[in-house]
Amino acid sequence: MDYEVRGPAAWLTFNRPEAHNAMTFAMYDALVKACERVDADDDVRVLVLRGAGGRAFVAGTDIRQFTAFETPEDGVEYERRIDAVLDRLEAVKKPTVALVDGFAMGSGFAIAACCDLRVITPSATFGMPIARTVGNCLSMGNYARLASALGVPRLKDVIFRARPIEAEEALAIGFVSAVVEDDPERYVSDLCETLADHSPTTLWVTKEALRRGRVVPEGDDLIREAYGSEGFRRNVQRFLNR
Question: 50: closest CA among 167, 189, 144?
Fold first, then answer.
């Protein structure tokens, strides 16, 4: 993970291109630390997230992290851990922008959805193909977050069919702010300057009010059902043996 301050914005890069920026637990921890760093720096007015390599934003959680799971409770603890990371990102007091070039799958989709604004290139693709890959589930917080961003019918369609959301659809449904083909970094830099010039109080209160308004149900029993299944363990090994 690379952290760089450019003018009013901190740019955080998921820098593991050889693995399509798949997230390890150490990377999740680094994301939390970056959020703390942004909130502690009065000179930073915006946080930008992006992926290295030009092929992916984040490909999801590195599946090797799942090989140590032995009980359904391991799945519950994992989802709680990811929820804590995503909740921290969503609670950053400054505006957050996801610059997505390539695919954002699984937790990459969720990380992008946590950001306040999303700017993408024409090659950007979002997805949550868990029904086709390892057969796990999301946390209740993630279901609520993605349902808020996409709408319940579309989220079901995306998960049930394990289908991607391409750039054109993402723009049409309002999930992204802009599709930028030429010099997306310059576009995002200009956007950061605009955000930095606006009232930080208005921006923070608005994002916090909308975050608090989302209802998240209890669902540990559902997570245990998914991560405790024989199919989950079999699918993890099948995925890693491909």
Answer: 189
pLDDT lower than 50: segments of the chain: none
Dihedral pair phi/psi, residue 166, rounded to 5°: -80, 170
Pairing of strands 125-127, 103-105: parallel
| pTM reported for the whole predicted model | 0.94
Looking at the DSSP assignment, which residues form a beta bridge with residue 100? Answer: 120
Q: Which of 50, 61, 144, 55 is nearest to 107 (CA)?
A: 61
End-to-end CA separation in angstroms for the chain: 27
What's the pLDDT score for residue 68? Answer: 84
pLDDT, residue 58, reads: 97
6 Cβ partners below 8 Å, 6+ apart?
A: 189, 192
Strand order in the sheet with 103-105: 56-58, 103-105, 125-127, 165-166
Structure tokens, 236: 């993890």
| Residue-averaged pLDDT of the chain | 95
CA–CA dist 4, 11 (Å, integer): 5
pLDDT of residue 67: 86
* Structure letter (DSSP) for residue 61: B
Stretch (H or E) spanning 56: strand 56-58
pLDDT of residue 190: 98
Angstrom distance (rounded) from CA 122 to CA 180: 7
Whole-number CA gyration radius for the chain: 17
